[in-house]
Structure formats: C-alpha cells, structure tokens
Design a protein that fits this description.
The chain has 321 residues and is an alpha/beta fold. It folds into 2 domains: 163 residues, Bordetella uptake gene, domain 1 (D-Maltodextrin-Binding Protein, domain 2, 3-Layer(aba) Sandwich), CATH 3.40.190; 99 residues, 3-Layer(aba) Sandwich (D-Maltodextrin-Binding Protein, domain 2), CATH 3.40.190. It has 11 helices and 10 strands. It starts with a helix and ends in a 5-residue tail after the last helix.
C-alpha cells in the first residue's frame, strides 16, 4: 500500500473516531476550571452555569478553582488539556489583557484556545464622592484639567479593568491625574467613601448600594448601552467620551482543536441555559447582561479587547511582572 493510501486511511479512521466521539459527548463528567478563588463574580457565574449544564447534559459539570496570577494558572491547565470537551475554562476579561500586562505567558491567548460561548458582560460605573463639585463627566474632565497633577483616581489593583478604564479616560480626555492602586476593592472602599479619592471606576454591583444611599455619586456607566440596574445614568459615550466602552466579560473556552461537533453541543447547551429566567435573574442581580450567541461572538470580543487594551497598556507603560 502506498504512503498516500496509508495517510488517507488514517485520516478516514480519525474522522470516524472524532464523529463517533462527538455523537456520544458527553459520556463522563466535565471539569470547568476557574482561574480565581471561590466566592467572586467569576466563580458565582460559573457555578450558576455549571449547575444547569449538569441538568442539560446529564453528566456532572465540576467547578475547579485554580486561583493565581490573574487567571493564568487556570488558563494554562486548559491550554494543555486534551481537546475533547471535558476540560473547559470560564474566564473573565483578564484573558484579553494578560497578554499585554505580562512579558511572557505559558500559552498563546488566541491559538491555544477554542471559544465556546460568551455568557455575560458587566459594566463598570464612574463614581465621585458627593463632596466633589461635579455632576457630569464633562464637569469632572474640566475639574481635573484645571488641577493638573493634583488629583488621583484609584483601582483595586494594577492592570485591572478599573485601572485600565481610568487610563483610557486619562488618554481620551488628555488628563494629568495620578493612579493609586490598592490591594483589592475592599481595601480602597474606605478611602473612596471618605472622599480621599477623587474618582474611580468600580464594579456596578459593589457600588450600587452606596449610590442608592447617596454615599457615592454616579456619573456614567462604561458599557455601550445603559444598565438596567442604573437606567437613569448615561453611558460614557452619551456623556461625551466617544468610543469609550469598558466591560467585564465572562466566556467559556476549551483547548484548541476541539472538534466542531463538541463545540456546537456545548454552545447550544449554554445558549439555552442563558435564556432561562432564573439564570438571567441571577446574572442581572450581579449587574450583568446574560448573553447566548455563537462562538464567534466570544472570538470577536477577544480580538477587540486585545487590540484596544494592548494600545492603552503600551502607552501607559503598565506592567505586572
């Protein structure tokens, strides 16, 4: 038998095996890795989705928290796993920014993963202390420009979406303002609530209770459209900053080269779950918007995030390692 015939026969057998495997998928438990500790927003969303996936697929979807290095440890496990659909990654938006924040990653952010589904997005909200004499984004920009180098904005850590949102505003509006990082949102809240921080972009869910009590004044949300949680608050674009969109997002990936049939099964299952009223209510309560689109939605969003934030991170000279 010629080498050409041997190769053709081997390819045919592989195709038959892959097709049969996909038709019986899943036949055992699935591991959903979260690169962050239990209890955070990523973990809560993951467990909400995993519970319903277990019901839909008739096999257990086990959540495995592998926290560390802004999600890099968990992502690396998935990147090196077999592409059979049994090891998945639920990743937040750090998956798109780590590429630029770290000098070297143990995987290729795009080539080593197969997008499965974008499940939700969450906006941030720009807030100031009520003692600040500003009631709009335009007034804040004018106030900061009149005091070059004298004001500060804060974030929960270097390289977070909150930090990058501040850097984007700084560059979009030409502001001379200092960034002060904290060790987590819990650490910065006392100074923010006391008015020692001039402004901040923070998680919508975290800030909403303080906004409702009047302890903080919201100026705008960072999503492309208004949030149902704060429907009277304009977007940054509406407030006069063109093209300003910063969202937290949560997407499910599998290792590269996962068969299309398995990707289709997972995507359709997750899409159905994200349309369930109880799941949608849970996500909305976290300040998020539930989504149920094709894998290309996640692929396109990741490409956009890498393009936008690599430029901001490079210009700002931000490095984590």
């Amino acid at each position: 038998m010629s080498i050409r015939l041997v190769l053709a026969a081997t390819a045919a057998l592989c195709a038959v095996y892959t097709g049969a495997h996909a038709q019986t998928f899943p036949s055992k438990p699935i591991r959903m890795i979260v690169g962050f500790p239990a209890g955070g927003t990523t973990d809560i969303i993951t467990r909400t989705v995993a519970t319903r996936m277990t019901e839909h697929l008739k096999h257990q979807v086990v959540v495995d928290n592998r926290g560390g290095a802004s999600g890099i440890i968990g992502a690396d496990i998935v990147a090196k796993a077999r592409p059979d659909g049994y090891t998945l990654l639920m990743s937040p938006s750090t998956h798109g920014t780590n590429l630029s924040l770290y000098s070297k990653l143990p995987y290729d952010t795009v080539k080593d993963f197969t997008p499965i589904a974008l499940v939700a997005t969450t906006p941030y909200v720009l807030v100031v202390h009520p003692s600040m004499p500003v009631k709009s984004v335009k007034e804040l920009i004018a106030y900061v420009k009149a005091r070059p180098g004298k004001l500060i904005f804060s974030s929960s850590s270097i390289g977070t979406a909150q930090h990058l949102a501040g850097e984007l505003l700084k560059r979009s509006a030409g502001l001379d303002v200092e960034h002060v990082p904290y060790k987590g949102t819990g650490a910065l809240m006392p100074d923010l609530l006391a008015g020692r921080i001039n402004f901040a972009f923070e998680n919508l869910t975290v800030m909403t209770p303080h906004i409702k009590t009047g302890a903080m004044r919201p100026l705008a949300v960072t999503s492309a459209k208004r949030s149902p949680v704060l429907p009277d608050i304009p977007t940054m674009i509406e407030a006069g900053v063109p093209g300003f969109e910063v969202i937290g997002w949560f997407g499910i990936f599998s290792p590269a080269h996962t068969p299309a049939e398995i990707v289709g099964t997972l995507n359709s299952t997750i899409a159905a779950i994200m349309k369930e009223p109880a799941v949608r209510e849970r996500i909305v309560a976290l300040g998020g918007e539930p989504l149920s689109g094709p894998p290309s939605d996640l692929r396109d969003l990741l490409a956009r995030e890498i393009k936008v934030w690599s430029k901001v991170i490079r210009e700002a000279g931000i490095r984590v390692d």
